[in-house]
Design a protein that fits this description.
Blueprint: H1 3-32, E1 37-41, E2 57-63, H2 67-80, E3 85-87, E4 101-107, H3 116-126, E5 127-138, H4 144-161, H5 169-175, E6 179-187, E7 197-204, H6 215-218
Parallel strand pairs: 1-2, 1-4, 2-3, 4-5
Antiparallel strand pairs: 5-7, 6-7
Helix pairs in contact: 1-2
Length: about 220
């Protein structure tokens, strides 16, 4: 655990507070209204999604790889008096069997994982056939000028908030085998121009794998 990750965890809620008040909290509520059954949330951070889950959620498992964030997540779970299960795990190596969850949730996470394609393959693996991925992610802009600005400013974004602002995440979701069924192109409220392009939506896991076959086995999981 580095000084930077400890500082990021300690200041994250303050950094994102303006965005939450300006509309990001509403994004979360709208997205997670569709969560039901056995739900997995990756990169849960400080637990900002916790108040947004409804009674249709039968079980909630939350993962977080960073120890400093994990402590804050555990405290948030206690404060909300939920039965959520909290585990330390990176999105690239989820400690769950194939086809375990009905829904997976990723909110502002896929910008910061070390290996985005692998994380998405893991999400595909642990979702049941036809299971849903719910996502809010800031992404590379479709506008060439803004995309070049994102490329120029990405070093600063990585330094300050530990993520890449210029990833083609929607394409990555599709390339991982998901079918995107709903997507809204919007902006992250109160964010700089090079961070603001955002997608929110739902993708469905494929249903064609034979029983007991892990997609990662065929794709060289290591």
């Amino acid at each position: 655990m580095t000084l930077r990750t400890r500082f990021f965890a300690a200041t994250y809620d303050r950094q994102i507070a303006r965005a939450e008040k300006a509309g990001l909290r509403v994004f979360r509520e709208d997205l997670l209204a569709g969560a039901a059954g056995n739900v997995l949330e990756i990169g849960s951070g400080t637990g900002l999604n916790l108040p947004c889950y409804g009674p249709a959620v039968e079980s909630l498992t939350m993962t977080e790889p960073q120890p400093a964030m994990l402590r804050r997540l555990q405290q948030a779970v206690r404060e909300h008096a939920t039965a959520a299960k909290v585990l330390r795990a990176p999105a690239e190596d989820l400690p769950f069997d194939d086809r375990t969850f009905d829904v997976a949730v990723s909110t502002l996470v896929l910008c910061g994982v070390e290996d985005q394609p692998r994380a998405l393959r893991e999400l595909r693996r642990v979702l049941r056939p036809g299971g849903r991925l719910l996502f809010i992610e800031h992404v590379r802009s479709d506008d060439p000028g803004r995309a070049r600005l994102q490329d120029r400013m990405n070093w600063l974004n990585r330094l300050m908030v530990c993520c890449d602002c210029n990833r083609p995440t929607l394409s990555s979701i599709q390339e991982a085998g998901f079918t995107v069924t709903e997507v809204e192109h919007t902006v992250l409220p109160k964010a700089p121009k090079f961070v603001s392009p955002t997608i929110m939506g739902t993708a469905t896991a494929p249903a064609g794998l034979p029983s007991g076959h892990s997609p990662l086995a065929a794709e060289g999981r290591s």
